[in-house]
Design brief:
five-stranded parallel sheet; NACHT_NTPase; elongated; 252 residues; P-loop_NTPase; NACHT domain-containing protein; Rossmann fold; 10% strand
Amino acid sequence: MVANLSLIKNLAGSFESPLSQNATITYEEGLVAEAVHELTGKSKQAHIAILGVGGIGKTALALHIMKNKAVMDKFKDKSYFMPCEICSDASSLIQGMLQALGLSVTEGHDPYKTFQNYLWLSQDPILLVLDNFETPWNTSGDQTAVQNLIEWICDQELVSVVLTMRATDGPGSHRWYKLGGHSGLPTLDLEPARQAFMLISNSQSENIESLDWLLKEVDCMPLAILIIAQLKRHLSLNTLMKRWNEQKDKDA
């Protein structure tokens, strides 16, 4: 799966026209509804892990969940998105969360205490969406500090967390709700993959057998579908398939 994503990126890189960065693919509504149910149900909090390899659509799904009306109604203006790929340890995670929360630290005060006090004193539900959490988890020289931080956050009664991560399990010993089941986020089924391809490529009709072959070649991964669908705006499907095979031979 990872190898195929690398192939499709190489194919895109060999094409002269720039690809649009505006198109997105979101997962079937069932996964969104599953997450919304966890976040807005009877429990005061939920801790959801969106797990899987890179390019499978974890961030897009997290944002889709975050923008759901029921989620917005519950958390109102207390919903925060934080990209964790810029964080390498617990300290930078705290700084990043303070920035996401819009909090400033008075000179001489401890950033962690400022963060703690905000969560302790909050009277309203808070949603933290921590994207690409594998970066601080895997690169920190003190993983225990990162684990202690995320587990402390999850212990706060009014705080819910949606976390995306390139992994098969959520961080630490905390019990995470794995969206999509035990194996994490699935790839798209063939029919939704076809629909996404047709929509993004602006195609009216395609040879289904050829299209299905190409979609299976890229494992129906959302990011790969996004790339090949945008390439299809400039190339015929047959040409795209030919270029794909040429790239496979080149990278073999």
